[in-house]
Write a structure and sequence with these properties.
With 332 residues, the protein is an alpha+beta fold. It has two domains: 145 residues, no CATH class; 174 residues, no CATH class. The chain contains 18 helices and eleven strands. Strand 3 and strand 4 form a beta hairpin. The longest helix has 14 residues. The radius of gyration is 27 Å and the shape is elongated.
Length: 332
């Protein structure tokens, strides 16, 4: 059994990488050639006449795609036995080798982001193992990027800053790439004919407002149902794949409070494309289960606004957890 954390730490925190790491993983992968190279103790090139070369024994076992790591840089073998230096550093090269990645599938920035995230304790052993256990090259690169959260939103401040810059050119796919995995809209239906509230005049003209935060959207639903006594509160939920064909607009001035996204569509179409709708009563149950917040069954506009301003914002991961636990109430 290989201790993933200690092995990974060695290539991230050190200038030189113990060759036993390469040996362990070449054995694990049943890579006979690499195992032979490591056990022959000739994996490092030698300096001769100011040029980097490899011995004949090693040269005969390397291919044109082989990588050699020496003194902070990565080299490839040329036909005459000389080593050509690549731009990839030793650390980045070792990451590529360790995770069996191609430098065509991950960028330098993504490699550096992984190293930084690991040093800060943000990547768990289980995530490293998940990358290593993926046999498909493209899927492995995707898992590597997901593990280091490169380019993903990781705080409420980052989320607000990003949402504040959403405009007509922003796509739902771009929201997903930033880590926004679920959308929520709190609204009401008529108790008699079940017709959906079409939204305010501004919303009907400018687009339907949704939020990345299910607690805030549930508050909107409660407040709306309280204000209009003949209505019942509902919470609509959607994933990026459901809403990807809807264009977006810039948010309103309360984006920092509501964490909202404006979808250029009607209330009816949003309800249809988002697919999942639960009652506000069930939404309150899941809010209590996931966030430990006991929302009241009725709210005035002022009390709703107070909660929106004072309750902590949901993380994007918690929002997705809410979605996953709430879908069992769809249509009930």
């Amino acid at each position: 059994m290989i201790d993933v954390s200690s092995v990974a730490a060695s290539f991230i925190g050190a200038d030189a990488i113990p060759e036993t790491i390469g040996l362990m993983y070449s054995v694990k992968r049943k890579d006979a050639l690499s195992t032979a190279l490591y056990t022959s103790a000739i994996v490092l090139p030698v300096i001769a006449s100011g040029e980097l070369r490899v011995g004949q024994k090693l040269a005969g076992k390397l291919t044109k795609d082989s990588k050699i790591f020496f003194r902070g840089f990565v080299y490839t073998l040329q036909a005459d036995g000389k080593l050509a230096k690549l731009s990839t550093t030793y650390k980045r090269g070792r990451l590529l080798e360790f995770f069996n990645l191609s430098d065509k599938t991950v960028t330098t920035a993504e490699l550096d982001a992984f190293a930084k995230a690991f040093k800060e304790g943000k990547i768990a052993n289980a995530e490293i193992k998940e990358v290593l256990n993926e046999s498909d090259d493209i899927a492995r690169a995707i898992k590597f990027k997901e593990a280091n959260n490169y380019g993903k939103i990781t705080s409420t401040d980052e989320l607000i800053a990003f949402l504040d810059n959403v405009n007509e050119l922003t796509t739902v796919t771009q929201l997903e790439e930033k880590g926004i995995k679920s959308f929520f809209r709190g609204t009401t239906r008529n108790k008699i004919d079940n017709s959906l509230f079409p939204g305010s005049t501004n919303a009907q003209i400018g687009g339907m407002s949704a939020s990345t935060d299910p607690v805030k959207s549930t508050i909107f639903s409660i407040e709306s149902a309280t204000q209009y006594g003949g209505s019942k509160g509902v919470l609509q939920m959607g994933l990026p794949i459901d809403l990807k064909n809807i264009t977006l607009s810039a948010p309103n001035r309360r984006v920092d409070i509501e964490l909202e996204i404006i979808f250029n569509t009607s209330a009816e179409n949003f309800a249809k494309t988002s697919k999942i709708e639960i009652s506000v009563e069930n939404a309150r149950k899941v809010v209590k289960e996931v966030f430990g917040i006991d929302l009241p069954s009725s709210l005035t506009r002022d009390s709703a606004d107070h909660l929106l301003r004072t309750l902590p914002a949901s993380s994007l991961d918690k929002s997705l957890e809410f979605y996953q636990k709430a879908i069992k109430y769809n249509g009930l």
